[in-house]
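[Solved] Which block belongs to which protein?

Original post:
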Amino acid sequence: VKKRGGVYQLEFELYTADNKKLIGSFAGLLADFTMDFGVGSGLFNLQETDYPLDHGILVYQRSSTNLPPYQFDLFLFGTGITYTETDGIAGNGNSLNFKIYSSSPNYLTSGTYIYSVNNPIEIFQITAGGYKILHDPLNLQESDWSGTISSGIITITRDRVNYTIEYNLYSGIKNIKCQYTGLLEYHTLIPTK
């Protein structure tokens, strides 16, 4: 879903009760329409402390070749954090972020993704990631409350539009475990020439 002025542009992939797939799009005005995507629930555990997560964002980084593997930025946020294509991340709260590669440009494929900085980049690879506790985009200093991922795996199960995401990652010697269930709000960023 994208909104420009009062005009909405919707692209959808839906399933009926008998598992028939419906794909379509719509552009126009919608009376009293509200966007409520990316809603989910979960938490991440860092050093024996749980931090809540309540929504997720999936940003497809479209390349000029548009060939696999397809690069995504995956964000999981707690209350207080928002994301827009124009402003990026805003607000204060807990966050996890990852650069992750899928076999589809439309979603994260179910499977086990492994952290690796090896080239060439492959499907089911994570090349970067990090976490912030009480994320504040105006405070750029790193601390014990933030870090980058150094190893680990992410297991993703996709059921139509819902995801179950489980992490077992490390930031140095700090173990980060996470479980998130719900929708991921989808965005596409097109490279500028």
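(Second protein starts here: sequence line, then its structure tokens.)
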Amino acid sequence: FRNFYGEHYARSLSDLSRLIEALDEVDDEYPHKGLEYIWPGIAYYRFRDFDKALYYFSRGLSYRKPEAAGYIRSNYMRAWSYLAAYHHERGNLDSAAYYNRTILASSEGRTQFQEHLDFAVCNLGRIEMQRSNYDGAIVLMEAGLENIEKDERSFEFMCGVNISLGECYLAKGDIRTAAYFIDKARNGIPQY
């Protein structure tokens, strides 16, 4: 999958096709089968081929084993995150909430991977914001942000949540706090 990161897309799609063919032939007891199906889901999601992405996420999650190695469990959580994002973008708020709650309730989330839990909590806050439950949204997003702010790799997500918090406070008529969160988002953007 280094080809995807190096933007060698034609080669990546060729490799992806070969991987899928091999996975279809591998015995179901192969311990990485679920993980390996999630990777094509992520790739197709990035290419915005959502029908294929959803298919491979479902296929990968169908092989889920909670006792799997940590990096495999982390990818189960990534698949749920992508599914939540897909439904959220389309306005399917109940489905988006379902996948975010799945992350929070999973054995994977209770053992490690705090960042996935924090993202899910913030995303549930964003869903509440869309439902005009601004007080609930603020509580959830501020709770999720507490740990995210410590992780420099999450600045993009953190900026988006700060903007959402600003919008919540603006909707409540609290201009000063809205401005605080908008400034916080702006200050979180490198070289701004």
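Accepted answer:
You had them paired correctly. Confirming on the second one: The CA atoms of residues 25 and 72 lie 20 Å apart.
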